[in-house]
């Protein structure tokens, strides 16, 4: 065939000379174009890898891929590049999303109805919404479902300061560490001094259990000032990577969602939040979390508002804007600079812990390993920076349901007198509280420095942060060298202090128990309960990891987490 094509004559001139030259030029152009496309592909895949953390895939046909379908699709078609998007279409989509969002804020009936089991939380009435805003389904599977919610709350931060933080992608992650595990701005379409910012973004969301898969969104973010004291921020999914027909169906799609922020003076704001998505994750969601996730509580507006309120309160305490409660241990760390430094160190510990719970990103193999079908997920990874011990780390996490309220569990874990009942570091002995730093008006919202009883070891302390809001709680801690913690208290640079946190995350189970009048009740036992996630990390070694060491470390961390769960149940007098 190659010879036949080589000797072909031009039908118009019955000569091979001109065609040969034309063919040579065309081949040269094709080679140049192919080289350019290959370079663009490699650059784009590296771009995608850097932003999302997913590994780049080989060129199609070089070797079989074992990654998820969505990852294959994104890598194969990323060469369309966000720089090639039609910006006029992006602007048109953003403006339409803003208009819809403002209408959703303005109209209550017939669009919204109040959830009967959750006073103050509103859900969209599907038929009314579809009549006013007709649009096609974006997740085209029979199991796809919609989630919608609206909630409001007062936040301890001025509207100007708050919008400054929300439009900064790094501060966005800091404000919502329990929701957002990854976020980045892919391209800035338009900028302005709060008059109108338009970004193309990527975000991964997670609810802090290895039993629940994260949600990923590529979306447009549009923020603008609509009044002297009012700002609005709206997100809407947009397939700006490609509109090719061979695309793998998305599992998550965000309809116009976001918040409106109104300044109410005295350094405070009123925030109204709307979340509206279409997802296909019911079958992949573990049965323990199905009510919590499918009831629009896991990613609903109330969770965004609660997290925002809690983090803004923490920010106010760290900057001395709110007087701290009187406690004999509050004065141990005297200087504001020392307190702020310890709070920053603790925030890094908390963020690191939450990132680890999205275990699918921390493995050298595709999915978390459920050790011997025990319900314990184990992940092996190499440390990724100076903020962690240099070497190999094994982590394990499990989630379980307990018939106690989140307040009851939170008080149990925070009680220093009962710590010996579950903490392996205490060695069965009482711990000594050394210092407290309040991070909120609730007495349980605080950072603690604890001295455990460890024979022949008096230079180890435990840094712990506990936090509780209306939807859940967390107790996160890490052993620390005495010298390192003292340097942080003195105000020295604490960004490179290695820290390896473990801890607990408590969530409501989404199945509120009912009283005789149908109202939600809060009790320690009954049909309602809490979801508890327990997670530990262990440093293995600095050098090469052997198969034997790998198996031993996995068995060790599994034993640790299993025995801790048994101790917790025994201390709570719960026998399942």
Break the fold down into its secondary structure elements and pairings.
Elements (H helix, E strand, L loop, with lengths): L1 H5 L10 H36 L16 H9 L9 H20 L5 E3 L7 E3 L1 H7 L12 E11 L3 H8 L2 H7 L4 E11 L6 E9 L9 E13 L2 E8 L14 E3 L2 E7 L5 E11 L7 H8 L6 H18 L17 H22 L11 E2 L6 E6 L9 E11 L3 H9 L17 E7 L7 E6 L8 E9 L3 E10 H8 L12 E7 L21 E12 L5 H25 L5
Antiparallel strand pairs: 1-2, 3-10, 4-5, 5-6, 6-7, 7-9, 8-10, 9-10, 11-12, 12-13, 13-19, 14-15, 15-16, 16-17, 17-18, 18-19
How would you characterize the overall build of this protein?
This protein is of the alpha+beta class. Helix content is 32%, strand content 26%. It has 13 helices and 19 strands. The protein has a nine-stranded antiparallel sheet, sandwiched between helices. Strands 3, 4, 5, 6, 7, 8, 9 and 10 form an eight-stranded antiparallel sheet that branches. A two-stranded antiparallel sheet has the order 1-2.
Rg, rounded, reads 27 Å
Overall pLDDT, averaged?
Answer: 77
Distance between the termini: 74 Å
Low-pLDDT parts are 1-18, 47-81, 242-249, 362-369, 513-527
Strand order, largest beta sheet = 11-12-13-19-18-17-16-15-14
In helices, the fraction of residues equals: 25-40%
Q: Give the strand tally.
A: 19
Largest sheet: 9 strands, antiparallel
Structural class: alpha+beta
Number of contiguous helices: 13
Shape: globular
β-sheet strand percentage: 25-35%
């Amino acid at each position: 065939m190659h010879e036949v094509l080589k000797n072909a004559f031009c039908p118009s001139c019955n000569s091979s000379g001109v065609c040969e030259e034309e063919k040579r030029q065309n081949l040269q152009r094709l080679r140049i174009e192919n080289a350019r496309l290959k370079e663009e592909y490699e650059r784009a895949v590296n771009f995608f890898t850097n932003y999302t953390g997913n590994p780049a895939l080989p060129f199609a046909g070089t070797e079989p891929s074992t990654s998820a379908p969505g990852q294959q699709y994104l890598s194969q078609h990323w060469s369309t590049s966000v720089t090639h998007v039609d910006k006029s279409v992006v602007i048109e989509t953003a403006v339409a999303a803003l208009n819809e969002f403002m209408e959703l804020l303005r109209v209550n009936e017939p669009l919204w109805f109040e959830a009967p089991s959750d006073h103050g939380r509103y859900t969209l009435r599907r038929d009314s919404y579809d009549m006013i805003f007709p649009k096609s389904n974006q997740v085209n599977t029979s199991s796809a479902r919609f989630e919608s919610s609206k909630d409001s709350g007062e936040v301890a931060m001025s509207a100007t300061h708050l919008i400054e933080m929300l439009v900064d992608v790094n501060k966005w992650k800091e404000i919502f560490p329990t929701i957002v595990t990854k976020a980045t701005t892919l391209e800035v379409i338009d900028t302005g001094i709060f008059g109108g910012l338009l970004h193309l973004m990527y975000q991964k969301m997670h609810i802090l259990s290895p039993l629940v898969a994260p949600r990923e969104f590529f979306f447009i973010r549009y923020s603008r000032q609509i009044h002297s004291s009012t700002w609005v921020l709206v997100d809407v999914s947009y397939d700006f990577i490609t509109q090719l027909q061979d695309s793998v169906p998305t599992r998550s799609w965000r309809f116009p969602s976001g918040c409106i922020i109104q300044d109410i003076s005295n350094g405070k704001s009123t925030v109204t939040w709307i979340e509206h998505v279409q997802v296909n994750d019911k079958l992949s969601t573990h049965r323990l979390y199905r009510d919590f996730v499918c009831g629009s509580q896991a990613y609903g507006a109330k969770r965004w508002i609660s997290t925002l309120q809690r983090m803004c309160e923490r920010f106010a305490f760290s900057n001395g804007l709110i007087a701290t409660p009187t406690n004999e241990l509050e004065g141990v760390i005297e200087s504001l600079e020392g307190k702020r430094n310890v709070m920053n160190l603790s925030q890094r510990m908390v963020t690191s812990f939450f990132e680890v719970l999205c275990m699918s990103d921390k493995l050298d193999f595709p999915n978390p390993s459920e050790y011997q079908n025990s319900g314990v997920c184990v992940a092996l990874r190499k440390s990724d920076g100076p903020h962690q011990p240099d070497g190999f780390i094994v982590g394990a996490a499990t989630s379980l349901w307990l018939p106690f309220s989140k307040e009851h569990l939170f008080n149990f874990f925070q009680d220093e007198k009962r710590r010996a009942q579950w903490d392996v570091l205490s060695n069965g002995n009482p711990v000594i509280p050394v210092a407290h730093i309040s991070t909120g008006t609730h007495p349980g919202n605080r950072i603690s420095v604890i001295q455990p009883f460890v024979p022949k070891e008096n230079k180890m302390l435990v840094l712990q942060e506990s936090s509780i809001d209306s939807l859940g709680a967390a107790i996160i801690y890490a052993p620390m060298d005495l010298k390192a913690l003292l340097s942080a208290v003195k105000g020295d640079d604490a960004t490179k202090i290695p820290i390896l946190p473990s801890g607990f995350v408590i969530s409501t189970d989404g199945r509120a128990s009912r009283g005789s009048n149908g109202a939600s009740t809060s009790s320690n036992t009954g049909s309602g309960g809490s979801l508890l996630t327990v997670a530990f990390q262990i440093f293995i070694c600095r050098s090469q990891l052997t198969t034997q060491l790998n198996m031993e470390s996995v068995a060790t961390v599994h034993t640790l987490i299993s025995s801790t769960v048994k101790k917790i149940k025994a201390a709570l007098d719960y026998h399942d």
